[in-house]
Every structure is written in structure tokens, then in C-alpha cells.
Amino acid sequence: LDLVRAMEKDTGERLPSLRVDGGATANHYLMQFQSDILDAPVERPQNVDTTALGVAYLAGMEAGIWNNVDDLLKLQSDRTFFRPAMGAERRAREIRYWNKAVDRVKNWVD
After folding, report:
1. How big, in percent rounded to 5, are the helix, strand and coil portions of the chain?
2. Which member of 22, 31, 36, 77 lies 3.0 to 4.6 Å from 86 by CB, making a disulfide possible if both were Cys?
3. Whole-model pTM over 0.85
4. From CA 97, how far away is CA 99, in angstroms rounded?
């Protein structure tokens, strides 16, 4: 939440959706919670190892397997979308709890 809000502040734009990847994205509860807290859709690709996939795509383009990015876009597989379902009052409460937790751990170590 904090990182997304910082990005929105820097760009002056509201995040329309969040695309995620990596091992933690396998946790459906976490992805739904992110969508709820951000009040924005979260989009997870079928293959969550997109960093490795990107390297393979670049190698394939260099080897002439694919000619351009349009060829790669055709390879995109199904995605799972998590849509906000949390009410505004609960969202505000959860964010207050988060901010309280962050305040408590600041300067924990001297």
C-alpha cells in the first residue's frame, strides 16, 4: 500500500490495477487482500515466474524465434483477476491498523 501510494503521489495518477508475479502471488488470500486494501484489481498471470519468462522471450527474439513484441503478446496465457470486495469502512480500519503497526516497529533497534 505504501509503495503504491508513493508511486501515485510521484506520478499524479491513480493506479488502475496492479500486476503481480513471484512466489507470494500463489497465495489467493494475499492477492485478494491486496486488491481490497488498494481498492483496485490485482492481475496475476498463469505463469508467475515472469522474470525468467522475460529472459526466455528476449533470448527467443534474439534467436529469431519471435520477430517482435506483438508475437510475444500472442503467447500471454490466462490471468487471474482479484477484484476489491472489502467495504470502505473495513478498508479504512485495516489501513489504520497497518499504520499503527508500522509506527510501533520504527526505531525498534538502536
Report:
1. 55, 10, 35
2. 36
3. no
4. 6
